[in-house]
Model the fold of this input.
Amino acid sequence: MKYLLVCLMALTLISCKELEVEKLQYETVTMMGKTTLAVTKDKVVVDFNGRGEPTHFERDTKDSEWAALIMGMKDVKLDEVNSLVAPSEKRATDAAPFAKMLFVTPDSTYVSASFDHKNPNAMLMPLMDEILKIQAENKK
Done:
C-alpha cells in the first residue's frame, strides 16, 4: 500500500510539472493600434483595434499548425518568460511595434516580457517562427 501511495505522489508531481498550454496569444502594439493573434487547438482569431475600423478574422486551426506551436514551445519555461531580456530595443523609439506573448494554461496565464515584433528572446524564437507562419497563412 505504501508503494502505491509513493507511486501516486510521484506521478502527481511529474504531471504537475508539465503545463498544458490551451491558448497562445501574440500581441503587437503601435501608435496605430493593437493587433491580437490568439490560437487554440480549434480556432485562430485575429483582432485589430485602433485608428480606423476595427477588424476581426476567425478560422479553424489546422492540426499541423497546433502541433508546430506545441513543438515551438518545447523549450519555453513559462515561469521565466516574464523576465526574458529582449535582444533589441527598437520599440523604445517607435522603430518597431511592442510585442508580447501570453500562454494560457488551465490554472494560469503567463505573460512574456515585451520585445520588438518578430525579435523575441532566443527561448521564444522557435515559437515566433511558427506564429509568423500562421500570420502569413491568414493573409492568403
